[in-house]
């Protein structure tokens, strides 16, 4: 499976309540379950007016289908080609 970052425009995302976040999480889990092993939602990061999600999937079309089922925007999909972290600085 490939790794993807999804950018979702959601004005006021930083002000979502605990209950709203729970509902979003449930919708995304249900969408992943409906798609089966073709899509794995890993985690999300919430910014001011955006939500960034990390997914494992076979292709971008599966990501779009996940968004359609969950009824959430899917504004930008970027495939992750290379990951680095602090350990990358070690020779």
The CATH top-level class label: Alpha Beta
Estimate the global geometry from the Cα principal axes: globular
What number of structural domains do the residues give? 1
Name the beta content range.
Answer: 25-35%
Quickly give the structural class: alpha+beta
**CATH architectural label:** 2-Layer Sandwich
Main β-sheet, in a few words? Answer: 4 strands, antiparallel
Low-confidence stretches: none
Order of helices and strands: EHEEHE
**For this structure, what is the CATH homologous superfamily?**
ORF SCO4226, nickel-binding ferredoxin-like monomer
Give the distance, in angstroms, between the N- and C-terminal Cα atoms: 28 Å
Query: Under CATH, the topology is which?
Result: Alpha-Beta Plaits
Neighbour order of strands in the largest sheet: 2-3-1-4
Overall pLDDT confidence: 93
Number of strands: 4
**Helix percentage:** 25-40%
Descriptive account of the structure:
The chain is of the alpha+beta class and 91 residues long. 32% of the residues lie in helices and 32% in strands. It has a 4-stranded antiparallel beta sheet with strand order 2-3-1-4, with helices on one face. α1 (18-35) packs across α2. The mean pLDDT is 93.
List keywords for this structure.
91 residues, alpha+beta, Alpha-Beta Plaits, four-stranded antiparallel beta sheet, 2 helices, 32% helix
